[in-house]
Structures are given as C-alpha cells and as structure tokens.
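Reading a protein record of the kind used here takes only a little practice. These numbers are not coordinates but entries in a learned vocabulary of local backbone shapes. Here is one such record, which you should read through line by line.
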Amino acid sequence: MKKLGLVIISLLLNLSAIQSQDVSFKKGFIRIDKEEKFELVKIKKEGLLPFRSFTLKNMKGENLLYIMDTSFYFQQLPCETKPRLSFGAYAIISTELNQTTIVPHFGALNFGKRLAKDLEAAGFFKDEKFTEPVYEKYLEILNVEEGKNLILFRDTTDINREKNYELTKEQFGELYKRQPGKIKVAEGKITDGIKEVGKFKMKSKGSYSHVYEIINKEGYTIAKANLFQTDNRGNVKPVVANEFKWFNYKKDKDGVEPSVDSKLTQIAKYLIEAGLL
C-alpha cells in the first residue's frame, strides 16, 4: 500500500512537471525550461521566400516538421501566357507520420513564437513526438478545414472556368491575351497584370443600387453588376452563365467601408478567374 502511494505521488509530480513546462522561443530555438530542445531553420530554395518556409529539427539534427510556403495555380487557359495564381498557403509536412496537409497562411511575424505556442497547445512537448492525435490537434489549431476549402475552391473554379471560357469564346470571341497578374479596378478600368482587359460602365445610379455593365476589350457587354446602397452587398450576372454571383463586402479592421473600386475589383477578380473576362 505504501509503495502504491509512492507511485501515485511520483505520477502526480511528473504530471505537475509536464503541466508547468516553460516553453519559449529565442534566437531560432524552442526552449523547454530554458533548455534548447528544437531548432527552427529557414529553408532557402528557388521559388520560396526564406522567411516563409522552415523545418523544425530536434537537437540531433533530425527533421520533424516542414512548413513550406506554397503557391497553388488554376489550370492555364489559352488566353493566359502562364498559369494564374489561385492562392498561397502552407504545406505542413510531418516526417514521422509521412503526411502532408495544406493550411491557410498564418503570417510570418513572430513565426517561431507562434509555432512554439501552437505545438504546446497541441500537446507536442509532452512526448516530443508527432503522434496522430498531436498532429491532428496541431492541424486543427492551424485551421485545416479552411485549407480544405481553399483546395475545393481551386478545383471547382478550374472545372467552371474551362466551361465558361468556351462559352465566352463562342459568344464573344477569344478572350484578350494577357499575362496573369494583380487584378484591380481604377476609374472603371479593369487591369489584369499590366494589361487593360475591360471596364465597368455605370448604367444607373439609384438610391437602392448602382447598376454597371462590364464591357470586354472588344466592346461586348459580358455581364451586369449591382452595388446595393442599402447594405454591403453586390452581385454580378454574366451573360453566358445566366446566374447571379453574390458578394458580401466587409469593413476593414479599422471599421472603414470598402471603396467602390475595391468592391468592383472583387467582381472583376471573380469574372477573370472564372474565365468570363
């Protein structure tokens, strides 16, 4: 009985020690109770920003986890001189489990401190191993479901944009040749990279909504859009798709409403990515 009591006390002391671990990040190392236990090493590779791609190593130099800044692209359309960027995200690679998972970007500021905090919350430092439960918890913290949604959006858009491209080409002719780049609207002009590919033309300006036509480079009206004045919403109805795409516009972190150009840019981005403009 006495031995059992000693065992219980020992277990409680060990549990207390685990719970009271002091986890910190300093000068490239994750420290536990001030002892360097893991090193976060920047990866320098062509096509990767060095401050956005890392590997986590133990003190034996073994790679435990890769966090790779990765770009994902749409299938290239004939009017595009190179593939169009769909989204950027992190590829999280566990060498122990041989698993790769996509999660949304979570910023590079204080990257090491964020990593240490997330791994601690996932229970990694208990056994210092990426077991299945620990890895799943870590991915949950990194919003893995949003990563799945990004992939689904890209794949779904790919299917629709090829169909839309063919319908648009059949009705309005070949889409304007361009090198995909940043999409923006200024003074009604729509630019994709360095080329103007179309424009917004206001048709009516009512108290309920402002109505626009979207005109391509050849002068054809390929869609009509509304910016509603009573709430922060808008929509666009492409001629060939014959259905509305809705947009909910949000204030920025300072509570400022998006500008008209910002709202129209979202519409233009949808039309271009969807193979309609």
